[in-house]
Specification:
The chain is an alpha/beta fold. It is 40% helix and 14% strand. It has four domains: 265 residues, no CATH class; 186 residues, Anaerobic Ribonucleotide-triphosphate Reductase Large Chain (Alpha-Beta Barrel), CATH 3.20.70.20; 61 residues, no CATH class; 206 residues, no CATH class. It has 29 helices and 26 strands. Pfam families: Ribonuc_red_2_N, Ribonuc_red_lgC, TSCPD.
């Protein structure tokens, strides 16, 4: 698309009707090649998507022969197939190729664009079609989940993920709120609402009685959300409840969830199942919502000055009570310390950046706090994958980024022309103001790969520059579209305010102090975009009241194979990766070697550092790594985790360039004090954030049990000292292996097997006093090359066993070898195999190794895996602390090696507590670090989720706890 709005304006003829341009947008190629369809540029392959329960091996989902580019990861393909392909599984109407999914969406967008006059001619529409297809195919960006669910299907064309509702002080309005919220939850989306218009429990009704107050009505809404969730929604009901700080019931609202957390602890201690998702947690109220307090500048100044603050009646605005502002501020922090609620939203900052104040104030947000706009409105989201714009030499594809933002924002705008909405009011407001939410993912990975610490001036300046450029281009394109199809309906009455906010964005851009050549180039381009965009907007107006937000990018982040979500840093330096045909492996994040190379380390040092991280999970004491480079590898979790204010400062750096706000939770250590939280809340206001939420580690009962801490340094030193005190006697012993042959008559057993459709036979012979001594493998016909190789391999293994090579050694070396044939087997204990060798040695381990030995290798029978689940459930119900039992849990495979998704706890036999399995990066991180992570279990598949903004995302199935 034309990057220079002024040039584009000259190419179009002008109409006398309001000065709007006619003829439509001109579109230029960026990613594609003329005459070559994007699908013809990539290599495709057929895959079998089989989603198994990694605890017991049962199959949850199966679709074979799906088509994806070879570059797409297993996880991305699995999530897209299970969540986004439409049509009943096993029928001809079921989508089976990524091509079908992309075409279903892109063709709908193209047709709507042509029908509504967005393009100058069919040729421009075709280029738009191809460019959008290329970007989606290569994971350059993604629309939010509702687009993939609904666009191009017979369902309502619902494209928005974020909703804001309204409630007035009447029973009819309150009941409408319940209904509207339920409809949104039913579709798997989330909504937010401000209850401050409802009279407090300290005010009278017209009938003479006392009002119930908003907290009372929250109970009904909470029960409704829990009921709809349990009735089969795709994920937990996501909702936000907000109350203004001057509401007379504010103190009751602040402590509501903290008091419920006390109740949860009491019930847990009495033996009830109060884990998140437990059978008894439903008896506790207010658990389905995030709560936030809307604080004003007046209140925050009263906190600063130590003065009083007035709580005002809702009906007439009279002062009900004057309270100590600092005392209430401390109560808010104390409640957040106890249970993570409430968060804060800074009302005056939000409305100072509001483009439509003549229509109404911004009173609420969506559940994740990134969408802030008018009541009864919605926003559709799309996010760019920033790593796709990082050059091999460390530069940034500025021009391609600009053009990509143009394509994405144009597509998002077009979607409003055909979109359906859950209520009439939301549809009317959204069509009149056309709120969009372009954003990005992989910022943390981009900074690390660029050799910049997340918590640094360089990291913040680069993030600010990218964000400013993105929003500047989005608004410039919005102004150009307004020249084609007119500004948004509510623009005329809000024109002065909208222009004022655009000038504020441009002024903030001028305040960026870029560090480095990349940030300098980005700021230079951003300055041009804001200047051009504001000039075009002065003439045409803007097509969209809002352009950008920073969403959690949960499911779509996995779809794009992003290492980090939204504005977040890396979770940890090691991650959990699924493999084709089943199984998994833990790897050092691929961002790490790229970062080391950008910092100038030679290849041999890179390899040594990676090996150290593989063994320890951290960079501390890595060979050759300079201590001044440690901060580059700081993550959200782990020994060198980023300090809370590091997260706050990053949010403050990018907030001035976002139309809405930022979905992010500030994680704080368990040792954080109420005063620490007060400081974070205060600094968030001073630094100009719109919203802020904290989470103190282990502050909630409804979370997985903690693993034991690693052995203390004092204990380790004591052990070393004790060992040093003992005399050392040097002995030289020479060992020579002696072959122990099998007797003429020996017990043996034969197992027939099938791996990926290839059949064979395994015969294993043992010594009379037990112990494997010989194996024979038969595959293919006698005389064939394969049969000869298998015979030779069998002889080599048998001789090795007879010379005393432990079976454990062979199992550790040959399991997880990957080659064809691979895939499903007919063995109930080994459902998936990476190769024939992988299967054979797993089977031998199950037949000839003790439970302890197999536990060390992460190999279990189906019965043992099932017993583990039952034991864990029984122990949790009884309130047993399993922490100590996981203290010595080794990771099942070395970093970089494939493994079954299991980490183990040694046990004497199968009767003892079964090992704790690993099914996600969060669980892997817990094993590596020896500490627990406060993340819920996925309600769909049971895998521990990982943070994604202020929400959580499941790496197993892609489900999220909020926006996606």
């Amino acid at each position: 698309m034309a990057g220079d709005g002024m040039t584009a304006g000259k190419q179009r003829s002008r109409a006398t009707n309001g000065g709007a341009a006619v003829g439509g947008l001109r579109v230029e190629r960026v990613w594609t090649t003329e005459g070559v369809h994007p699908y013809d540029e990539v290599e495709w392959e057929r895959r079998d998507v089989v989603m198994t329960n990694w605890r017991d091996g049962s199959i949850n989902f199966e679709q074979r022969g799906v088509e994806y580019p070879t570059s797409w990861s297993v996880n991305a393909a699995n999530i897209v197939t299970t969540k986004y392909f439409r049509g009943a599984v096993g029928t001809d109407t079921r989508e089976w190729s990524l091509k079908q999914l992309i075409d279903r969406v892109v063709k709908t967008y193209r047709k709507a664009g042509e029908d509504n006059g967005y393009f100058a001619n069919p040729g421009d529409a075709e280029i738009f079609d191809h460019e959008l297809t290329w970007m989606l195919l290569h994971q350059v960006f993604s629309f939010n989940s509702p687009v993939w669910f609904n666009v191009g299907t017979s369902s309502p064309q619902q494209v928005s993920a974020c909703f804001i509702l309204s409630v007035d002080d009447s029973m009819d309005s309150i009941l409408d709120w319940y209904k509207e919220e339920g409809l949104i939850f039913k579709g798997g989306s989330g909504s937010g609402v401000n209850l401050s218009r409802i009279r407090s429990s300290r005010e009278l009704l017209s009938s003479g009685g006392t009002a119930s107050g908003p907290v009372s009505f929250m109970r009904g809404a909470d029960a409704s959300a829990g009921t709809i969730k349990s009735g089969g929604a795709t994920r937990r009901a996501a909702k936000m409840v907000i109350l203004d700080v001057d509401h007379p019931d504010i103190e009751e609202f602040v402590t509501t969830k903290a008091r419920e957390e006390d109740k949860i602890r009491a019930l847990r201690d009495a033996g009830f199942d109060m884990d998140l998702g437990g059978s008894d947690i439903v008896s506790v109220q207010y658990q389905n919502a995030n709560n936030s307090v809307r604080v004003s500048d007046e209140f925050m100044r009263a906190v600063e000055e130590g003065t009083t603050f007035d709580l005002r009646g809702r009906l007439h605005g009279e002062t009900i009570e004057s309270i100590d502002a600092k005392k209430l501020f401390t109560e808010i922090a104390k409640a957040a310390w106890e249970c993570a609620d409430p968060g804060l939203q800074y009302d005056d900052t939000i409305n100072d950046w509001h483009t439509n104040p003549e229509t109404g104030r911004i009173t609420a947000s969506n559940p994740c706090s990134e969408y802030m706009s008018l009541d009864d409105s919605s926003c559709n989201l799309a996010s760019l994958n920033l790593m796709k714009f990082l050059k091999a030499d460390g530069g940034f594809e500025v021009e391609k980024f600009v053009r990509s933002v143009e394509f994405v924002i144009t597509a998002m705008e077009i979607s409003i022309s055909f979109a359906d909405f859950p209520t009439k009011k939301i549809g009317e407001t959204t069509r009149a103001y056309r709120q969009l939410g372009i954003g990005y993912a992989n910022l943390g990975a981009l900074l690390m790969a660029s050799g910049l610490p997340y918590d640094s001036e360089g990291g913040r300046s680069l993030a600010a520059a990218i964000t400013s450029l993105m929003t500047g281009v989005a608004y410039r394109r919005s102004a150009e579209i307004a020249g084609v199809v007119g500004p948004y309906e509510g623009y005329a009455r809000n024109a002065d305010a909208h222009k004022r906010v655009m000038r504020k964005h441009a002024a903030a851009n001028d305040e960026i102090r870029p560090a480095g050549t990349v940030a300098t180039a980005l700021v230079r381009e951003a300055t041009k975009q804001w200047q051009n965009g504001n000039k075009i907007g002065e003439r045409n107006g803007w097509r969209n009241a809002q352009a950008s937000v920073l969403a959690p990018t949960g499911t779509i982040g996995l779809m794009m194979d992003c290492d980090t979500t939204g504005v977040e840093p890396d979770l940890a330096l090691v991650k959990f990766k699924k493999l084709v045909g089943g199984g998994s492996m833990q790897i050092v994040n691929q961002t790490v070697p790229r970062a080391l190379r950008s910092l100038g380390y030679p290849e041999e040092q890179v390899e040594a550092i990676i090996e150290h991280i593989a063994d320890h999970g951290i960079v501390v004491d890595a060979p050759g790594l300079k201590p001044e480079h440690y901060p580059v590898f700081d993550c959200a979790m782990g020994e060198r985790s980023i300090a809370p204010m590091g997260h706050v400062r990053m949010m403050a750096a990018v907030q001035p360039f976002i139309s809405g706000a930022i979905s992010k939770t500030i994680n704080m250590p368990e040792s954080a004090t109420v005063e620490d939280i007060e400081n974070v809340h205060y600094q968030g206001w001073k630094l100009g954030l719109k919203a802020l939420a904290i989470y103190r580690d282990n502050c909630k009962v409804g979370q997985p049990l903690s693993a034991a801490k690693p052995k203390s340094a004092v204990a380790a030193v004591a052990e070393v000292a004790a060992a040093a005190a003992e005399p050392v006697v040097e002995k030289v012993v020479e060992y020579r292996p002696v072959r122990k042959r099998l007797p003429k008559k020996r017990p043996s057993e034969t197992v027939s097997f099938s791996v990926g459709g290839a059949e064979g036979y395994l015969t294993a012979s043992s010594y009379p006093d037990d112990g494997l001594g010989e194996v024979f493998l038969k595959m293919s016909k006698q005389g064939s090359t394969l049969a000869g190789v298998m015979d030779a391999f069998s002889v080599a293994i048998s001789i090795g066993l007879q010379y005393g090579v432990p079976l454990e050694t062979f199992v550790s070396k040959f399991t997880n070898m990957r080659f064809e044939p691979a895939g499903m087997t007919d063995d109930p204990d080994v459902r998936m195999a990476a190769s024939v060798m992988d299967y054979i040695f797993r089977r031998l381990a199950l037949d000839f190794l003790s439970y302890d030995a197999r536990a060390e290798l992460g190999i279990f029978t189906a019965k043992e895996r099932a017993a583990q689940i039952q034991a864990e459930a029984a122990a949790e119900t009884a309130g047993v602390d399993l922490a100590g039992m996981a203290a010595s849990a080794p990771v099942s495979a070395p970093v970089g090696a494939a493994s079954t998704p299991t980490a183990t706890v040694p046990a004497a036999d199968a009767e003892r507590e079964a090992p704790s399995p690993v099914g996600s990066s969060t669980e892997l991180l817990e094993i590596v670090l020896g500490t627990s992570a406060d993340a819920p279990l996925c309600f769909t598949c049971g895998t521990k989720m990982r943070p994604a903004g202020s929400c959580y995302v499941c790496e197993g199935c892609g489900s999220t706890s909020g926006c996606s």
